[in-house]
Amino acid sequence: QQQVKQSPQSLIVQKGGISIINCAYENTAFDYFPWYQQFPGKGPALLIAIRPDVSEKKEGRFTISFNKSAKQFSLHIMDSQPGDSATYFCAASSGGGSTLGRLYFGRGTQLTVWP
Amino acid sequence: DAGVTQSPTHLIKTRGQQVTLRCSPKSGHDTVSWYQQALGQGPQFIFQYYEEEERQRGNFPDRFSGHQFPNYSSELNVNALLLGDSALYLCASSFMGQAIYNEQFFGPGTRLTVL
Q1: CA of B99, closest CA in chain A: separation in Å?
Q2: Strand, helix or coil at A64?
Q3: pLDDT (tens digit per residue) in B11-66
């Protein structure tokens, strides 16, 4: 059972455009939602993360929007650049209980930004 | 400040063999989690070590075992290798004292190929 569902599987955006990746979850115990960026042959790198007490978090060109009632969150990449071409993973975890610290990942979105 | 390091980078084994992968956590971190990432998929949680004990485990068979040393470094052992064990094995480190924030940092991974 996929705890975190991610879409789209792949995304092609023109340079300067906005890239949007969506994720949904079911477990209401999740209270930490990070996004990771992964380049081929590398490990995932933490990009930005959000907690359910805020609806939006922005860091540079990257913004997370969080909808607690809908159990959805999304990553927006503004002014997308060719260097942003990578695979993006959303994830979720719980800050307590028996699964403390365990990250549940989506299947990933392969982003291609055309120059 | 060194990040998470893993060794070896690549490994080729044959079915039935055993393999040991190694991980050194980021400085100041005391918790190590291992993930398996199959090609084109998101990382899947294997297990987590803290205070030299396995704290939680994902849906992986007993062929997968691990160890954490007093210096917080960790090993992942896989016995009786199967073709399906071919994957990128990722180590992630975190600080349990800030578990509620659950920021996990990944190493570059070990690419295991089973022939």
Answers
A1: 6
A2: strand
A3: 999 999 999 999 999 998 999 999 999 999 999 999 999 999 999 899 999 999 99
Q: Which residue of A has its CA nearest to B6?
A: A43
Give the CA count within 13 Å in the CB-facing half-sphere of B59: 5
The answer to whether A52 faces chain B, any CB pair under 8 Å, is: no
The structural domain count of chain B equals 1
- Which pLDDT does position A94 carry in this prediction? 84
What's phi and psi for B86, nearest 5 deg?
Answer: -65, 120
Instruction: Indicate which CATH number applies to the domain containing B40.
Output: 2.60.40.10
Q: Is the dihedral of CA B104, A105, B64, B50 positive or negative?
A: positive
Assess if residue B113 is contained within a domain.
Answer: no
A45 touches chain B (CB under 8 A): yes
**Strand, coil or helix: what is B85?**
helix
